[in-house]
Amino acid sequence: MNCRVVITGIGVVAPGGTGTKKFWDLISAGRTATRRITSFDPAPFRSQTAAECDFGPAAEGLSPQQIRRMDRAAQLAVVSARECVEDSGLDLQVLDPARVGVTVGSAVGCTMGLEEEYVVVSDGGRIWQVDERYAVPHLFSYFVPSSLAAEVAWTVGAEGPVATVSTGCTSGLDSVGQAVELIAAGAAEVMVAGATDAPISPITVACFDAIKATTPRNDEPATASRPFDRTRNGFVLGEGSAMFVLEDLEHARKRGAHVYAEIAGFASRCNAFHMTGLRPDGKEMAEAIRVAMAQAKAVPADIDYINAHGSGTTQNDRHETAAFKLSLKERAYSAPISSIKSMIGHSLGAIGSLEIAACALAMKHGVIPPTANLHEPDPECDLDYVPLVAREQRVGTALSVGSGFGGFQSAMVLRDPEGTPA
Amino acid sequence: MTATVVTGMGVMAPTGLGTRRFWERTMAGQAAIGRITAFDPEQYSSKLAGEITGFAPGEHLTGRLLPQTDRMTRLALVAADWALQDAAVDAAALPEFGLGVVTASSAGGFEFGHRELDKLWRRGPEHVSAYQSFAWFYAVNTGQISIRHGMRGPSGALVTEQAGGLDAVAQARRQVRGGVAAMVCGSVDGSPCPWGWVAQLAGGRISRSEDPGRAYLPFDVDAAGYVPGDGGALFVLESEDGAQERGVSSWHGEIAGYAATFDPPPGSGRPPTLLRAIELALADAGIDADGIDVVFADGAGVPELDRAEADALRAVFGAYGVPVTVPKTMTGRLGGGGSALDLAAALLTLRHGEIPPTVNVSRPRPEYELDLVTQPRQGPVSVALVLARGYGGFNAAMVVTRRGENELNSGRKAE
User: Fold this and answer.
1) Closest C-alpha among B202, B212, B246, B233 to residue B89
2) What is the mean pLDDT of residues A69-73?
3) B64 contact A CB<8A
4) pLDDT value, residue B409
5) What is the set of active-site residues of A?
6) Would you tell me which residues 107-126 of chain A have a C-beta closer than 8 angstroms to some C-beta of chain B?
7) Residue A145 in contact with partner chain B when CB distance is under 8 A
8) What structural domains and CATH numbers belong to chain A?
9) By CA distance, what is B260's nearest residue in A?
10) How far apart are the first and last CA of chain A?
11) Are the CB atoms for B14 and B38 separated by under 8 Å?
């Protein structure tokens, strides 16, 4: 195909602040936004730390009815979608709505809204046969997380293909990858694509407690997320959203848009191994990386930066290190690799899109965000994880990877389109 | 481009487990809507559903899988087994990353989630199951199917409410066109529990009738909502060339065309977009409206939505211009599974040359001007159009054809 799909707008709501600028300021400074959970009392839980967004929907201009109607995940998505469209300079009044599509990734959908309403209709868990008379009308929208994509589509006026993509913790990569495929297939001219998740609620914290996936390091919340460190013992739950405007490169150039990056390759594979476990050899992630790089016609030496999944669980960081070695050979040992989850936690389905944003901004600024809290590298994680301090360096080609429950392994290659011949 | 063909099908329907039983009962017009048995519906404003009964998961799945799966996932795992058996696909004989899976789910394993919410709020966090981290989430069927069959190719999971079954098949078709040897795709949905029931009732579109024969009447003057149900269908998709290379000589049909659109927000004054989805799907298939032999309608059962669908059908096909049927009047609307089950019914219609009926609809609104098939109708059917709409404005249209039949060419534009 001759189509080259590029990012021309970015919108972010992340722990540490709303807006792309605050997100970049935080992660390029190596600051962390993890803290003791404030949205409910975490005392009964094993893991009490999270990276929360200080997000006020009214302050962001959402109307009272929008606020009442939307789960927090939808609110985050709508605000980041609005920013990405503004950033792109796209005039939605001029564009044919039929040629605009939306994909929104989310691992757990409207789980906060659902749990809040469950508590009411079950009267605090007392009633199994829950009481219909206490249900709010928008409960059905929480029930079907397709509502997340619908809200974004209404916000941007999209009437082309619209979907919620829910592949667990790779949703944020897969949603954008699917949007690229839709543009390439001619199904849309412009896609507003990204991901959102707002999972910091008792049921989500409890379910990760049950499998000890999240860190119990409750006494040091600001430094609790420690990807690739010897002392890591689980991830820190996060929340947030990142959305992008995607369009064909020629389309972008014709309207004089700023181009952040070309999405030059994307692939997803399954490990078919275990719903939560990883095969130690990293073979399926390596295959996804290999295919994404082949699409981008990139060789290992071209990779200037790898944005790792780097969740901070013992098995993930080793699995991923193995996958980099398998796919990139000796380049794995010299390429700068970092995990922004060390700073903004792991926002499940949203994080893949936040990491794409980090790659695009790294390319724009020529700065690689660091892995915070990495003081004592795990001897089995023996690559260059850019510890503690950002690195000034040109990023012409970046690789972002994700790994999720269900066995999903995804990889995306982003490239500066000015650096390569059209 | 080589055609994408359906070489396998696994059906899990309230009207029958397995393709043969489903089709016999569907052609006989025997509905499976009744009073809910999964829980006591007495206190709720609606009490009817199209439930799958007689499914014994222990006969199909190991004891290890049962505690970690919602009912929806158990049904999906067995449907995937049947689809792969029907296609006679040997996963081990395919390229290492040559088999993938895309499923749609409207609300995940909600019953599993209800039990764990109950434990959390009644008894405390330490009582929540280790399986809660994945057993309820929207990607669970894809993950479990991939593990069961060692499917390591590109995979996905979509949520577009009722449109999901078609959207998942379309995504799988894109993967087959991109070179993946075989894809399992579709949707098996529905997870009955009081909590999910209350959430569905909140949507305001569920019929309050307690008469199974009068509760779900799409296009009828008495249409007053729909009946939910559980089940769906999964398919195996391959390229025609690939299927032939492995010695397969017949298949259920070709996925010839597809499009998805989204409606403008309520109150915008802009027209709904189902019409455009139909037009784009026909264009994708290279088929004129007069080449369509039957339409499997979405059949919302909500008057304003019925009217919108009838308007779109009239605009494309003219008044009484094409046979229209809603076999889901026998099962209820199955979330993402409903459109997948309609796709199965459309493929079986192509195979058997008989159109299944729309039951219970005795007084179609005359102004809709639809040729509604209310009795089984015989006759050659070469091309079918399947429509689906998801809550919030999702529209999907898919064209399926019998491949390799002479009569097909008459309706097809010169290529």
Assistant:
1) B246
2) 97
3) no
4) 40
5) 169, 309, 346
6) 107-109, 114-115, 117-119, 121-122, 124-126
7) yes
8) 5-254 (3.40.47.10), 265-417 (3.40.47.10)
9) A161
10) 13
11) no
Question: Euclidean distance between the first and final Cα of chain B, in Å?
Answer: 12
Q: What is the distance between the alpha carbons of residues A342 and A388, in angstroms, rounded to a whole number? A: 10
A408 contact B CB<8A: yes
- B72 within a domain of the structure (yes/no): yes
* pLDDT bracket for residue B1 (50, 70, 90): confident
Identify the closest residue of chain A to B107 by CA–CA distance: A144
Domain boundary among B195, B213, B245: B245
Partner-chain contact B392 A150, CB within 8 Å = yes
pLDDT band, very low/low/confident/very high, at B406 (cuts 50, 70, 90): very low
Cβ–Cβ below 8 Å for B158 and A122: no
Q: Taking CB atoms and an 8 Å limit, are B137 and A122 in contact across chains?
A: no
Range of the domain at B191: 4-245
Confidence band of A3 (pLDDT split at 50, 70, 90) = confident
| Dist. CA B338–CA A271, nearest whole Å | 29
B43 has a chain A CB within 8 A of its CB: yes
Q: What angle do CA A260, A84, A90 make, to 5 degrees?
A: 85
- Name the nearest CA neighbour of B2 among B143, B231, B173: B173
Which residues have CB under 8 Å from B409's CB, separation 6+?
none
B251 in a structural domain: no
Average pLDDT over residues A187-210: 98
Q: Can you tell me the distance from the alpha carbon of A196 to that of A286, in angstroms, rounded to the nearest whole number?
A: 26
Tens digit of each residue's pLDDT (9 = 90 or more) over B301-316: 999 999 999 999 999 9
Q: What is the CATH number of the domain that holds B316?
A: 3.40.47.10
Chosen from A66, A207, A214 to mutate, greatest number of chain B CBs within 10 A: A207
Instruction: Tally A–B CB contacts below 8 A.
Output: 263
User: Complex ipTM, two decimals?
Assistant: 0.97
- Cross-chain residue pair A206–B128, CB shorter than 8 Å: yes
